[in-house]
Amino acid sequence: MFLTSEQLAEITTFRHSLHRRPETSGEEVETASAVIDALRAVGADEVLTGIGGHGVAAIFSGREDGPSLMFRSELDALPIDEISDLPYRSEVPGKGHLCGHDGHTATLIALAKGLGERRPSRGRVVLMFQPSEENGVGAAAVVADAKFAAIRPDLVFSLHNFPGLPLGHSALREGPINCASRGLKIALTGKTAHASSPEEGTAPTFAVARLLEGLTALGRGMTVDEHFLQVTITYARLGERAFGISPGYAEVWATLRALSDDAMAELVTAAERLVHLEAEAAGLTVSIEYQDVFPQSSNAPQAVAELRKAMTDEGVSFDDGNGILPMRAGEDFGVFGRVAPSAMFFLGAGVNHPGLHNPDFDYPDPLIGIGAGVFMRTVRNILG
After folding, report:
1. What confidence tier does 143 reach under pLDDT thresholds 50, 70, 90?
2. How far apart are CA 125 and CA 60, in angstroms?
3. DSSP state, residue 315
4. Rounded Cα–Cα distance for residues 77 and 357 (Å)
5. If DSSP codes are grouped into helix, strand and coil, which group holds residue 162?
6. CA–CA distance from 158 to each of 70, 375, 377 (Å)?
C-alpha cells in the first residue's frame, strides 16, 4: 500500500465526517467544500469547482506529455433515514450515506494523497468528484459543462462497493454492467363529479387498474440478458381522500429497465402506446414525464484490461461477476463511456453486509485502501 496506516486512518476519519453530514443530489455544497479543502491540502496542481453543479475535479500532471486518466467518485447521499448505532451516524434527519458514496470519495482522496507525494511520470490524472448520481443527472451535467472540455480523458475508471461479495474480492467484466433505467410518470386527467353521480364525471379509475397490470406485463424475464425488460410500479394516486368525490385525476409512476439503450427505446414506445390507448378509451387527457434517466453502462475491453492487470499486481482477488453482473440497477457512469473507454469494478463489501440503500448500510473502511491501491497501480502501470 502506498499510504501509511496513519494516513489511511486520517482518510477514514475524513470519510466518517462526510457520513455525518450527508447531502442529497444537487445539494452537495458542504461535501464539495470538504473535498476541495482536502485536495488543496495534498497539493493538487489544479482544482476545478462547480462542474455540472457541485462537482469537483483535481488534476495531477506528469513531467511529460501522455494520456489523461480520469477516476470518478460520487458526492451525493440518499433521502433515507439511517438506522445505526455508529458514532459517526448521520446527523441529518431523513438523509444518509447508504450507498457508499462517502467511501468512494474517500478512496479518491487517498489516491490524491499518493499523487500529491509522487506525480505520474507523464500524462495527467484527473480525479472527478461527481454530483447527483442518485437521480441520474450528474454525469450528463458534468460532461455538458464547458469546464469538462479541458479535462476530457482518454480512459475513465471507477468502482462501486458490492454487498454480497466477500470483503475485498472484486467483480470485473467486459460489456454491459448496469441496465438502462428511467422513471415514467403518468398523469391522467378527467372530470370530478359527486360520488353519488359518477356518470356526470370522467374517472380514471379503471384506466389506472388496467395500467397497473398492463405496464407490469411488459416485463420479460428475470435474468438480465438481451431479452430482459422490467417495469416496476412504484407509486399510484387516484383522486382525493374524500368519500363524496368521484375522482378526476390520477398518477401512476413506474421504473422501466432494459439491458441496452435500444431495448429501452422499444420498451418506452410500448409503454407510451399502452398509456395513450387506455387514456383514449377512458376519455382522459394524459401527460408523460421521465425522470431519473440512466443510460446503459458498459465496460470497454481496454479499460478492463488495465484494471485486471492492476488487481493482479496488487494481489486483489477478482472474477468476472457471473451471477451478479450485469446489474438491474442503473448507474450514470455509462455517460462517461460515451466520452472515452471506461470501466467500473465492483468491490466486495462482505457476504452478509447490509444491502445498498438499506437504512443500516455503512461503507466498510478497509475498502478505502484496497480501492485506492488498485487505482494507484493503474496510474503507475499506464503513466509511470
Report:
1. very high
2. 5
3. T
4. 10
5. strand
6. 9, 9, 14
Annotation: binding site:
99, 101, 134, 160, 357
Rounded alpha-carbon distances, angstroms, from residue 379 to 112, 174, 194, 362: 12, 20, 69, 28
| Cα 110 to Cα 126, 180, 255, 314, distances in angstroms | 14, 31, 36, 16
Give the residue-averaged pLDDT of 329-351. 97
pLDDT digits (tens, 9 = 90+) for 204-250: 999 999 999 999 999 998 889 989 999 999 999 999 999 999 999 99
Residue 63 has pLDDT above 90, yes or no: yes
H helix or E strand, kind and range, residue 183: strand 180-189
CA distance 175 to 297: 8
Please, what are the domains in the chain?
A: 5-178+296-383 (3.40.630.10), 180-294 (3.30.70.360)
Alpha helices for 42-166 (secondary structure H)? 101-117, 138-144
175 Rama sector, left if φ>0, alpha if ψ -120 to 50, beta otherwise: left
Pairing relationship of beta strands 170-171 and 342-350 according to DSSP bridges:
antiparallel
Binding residues for Mn(2+): 99, 101, 134, 160, 357
Specify the DSSP element, H or E, that contains 127. Answer: strand 122-130
Question: In terms of DSSP H, where are the helices of the chain?
Answer: 5-20, 29-41, 101-117, 138-144, 205-216, 261-282, 301-314, 366-383
**Residue 118 cell numbers, joined:** 509522487
Task: Please tell me the distance from the alpha carbon of residue 352 to that of residue 63, in angstroms, as a whole number.
Answer: 45
